[in-house]
Amino acid sequence: MFNFNARYGITEVRHNSSHIVRLKVLDTARNATVEMTREYVVSLIKQGYRFKTLPKDRNGRLYWGEDVRIFTFLGVAYLRTDTNRVASDNLGELPAF
Q1: What whole-number distance in Å separates Cα of residue 71 and Cα of residue 29?
Q2: What is the C-alpha separation between 62 and 54, in angstroms, rounded?
């Protein structure tokens, strides 16, 4: 189905008033989509697992996007696709669920 660039691909996100709280993630090893908490995603990235965004193109097909990184500020880990040192989540234009 995919050229596996990462173990996990993030397809959708759920925010609260301040940041992402849950994510829909394609696990390429199991070829299954699962829901994960932000804390679990952070822990997997810290363990060395690679996450990328997995948005849809204008024809509705998924494609590999940007690498997801952690930026920690005052003890809070933020999920980001850029290298900006801003205390907020930024995974691009992924849709909400």
Answers
A1: 26
A2: 6
C-alpha 7: how far from its chain's center? 11
pLDDT for the residue 5: 73
Query: What contacts 21, CB < 8 A, 6 or more positions away?
Result: 14, 15, 37, 38
**Distance between CA atoms of residues 93 and 26, nearest Å:** 17
> Is pLDDT at 1 greater than 60 in this prediction?
no
Q: What is the pLDDT of residue 4?
A: 58
Q: What is the rounded CA–CA span in Å between residue 95 and residue 60?
A: 12
**What does the chain look like in DSSP terms, one character per residue?**
----SSSEEEEEEEE-SSSEEEEEEEETTTTEEEEEEHHHHHHHHHTT--EEE--B-TTS-B---PBPEEEEETTEEEEESS----SS-B-TTPPB-
